[in-house]
Here is the input.
Amino acid sequence: MRLKKMLVPEAMYNDIYEITADDLVLRNKKGVIFDIDNTVAPYEIATPTFEMKEYFSSLVNAGLKIAFVSNNKHDRARVFTAELGFFFVSDASKPSPKGILRCIDHLECSKEEALLVGDQIFTDCLAAHRAGIECFLVKPIKDKPTLFFRIKRRLEKPFIKIYNARKAKKAEKEKERSNEKN
Here is the structure.
């Protein structure tokens, strides 16, 4: 797979709550792996909120299996997932695919049935694609005001433009097909 393709997500959303159980089931997904920090919760939220718990319950009630993969330390991932009771991999070293592959094994689903939801192209998206699964990107909940993160977010912009161009092209094709049917 070419690097450019590996850095472009399959879908983009404002937050995890826009990714519904119905959409995931329609895409034939059975296992969803979530990054924690800045994807599900800001860094300063140690445990899941009521809204987060309700969201994950809705996914489980639809028959989806959930896991978490995080580059953060074990204690952070353990404390965050404790109330939820989901499998997690901490210190994952993304963009290495190893943590994601461990999650897929635990979820007992195929790569085609698995999906990663994250907030960063150079860690989450690249790791997902290296593991052979799709990636949905959400906007970061809260950007870190460090120079490193500002540079990284700027470097992500060309890949977001590629995604938007693909999305527009796909919408145009669907519109043409719809017009042909009418």
The chain has one domain: 3-144. The first strand starts at residue 11 and ends at 13.
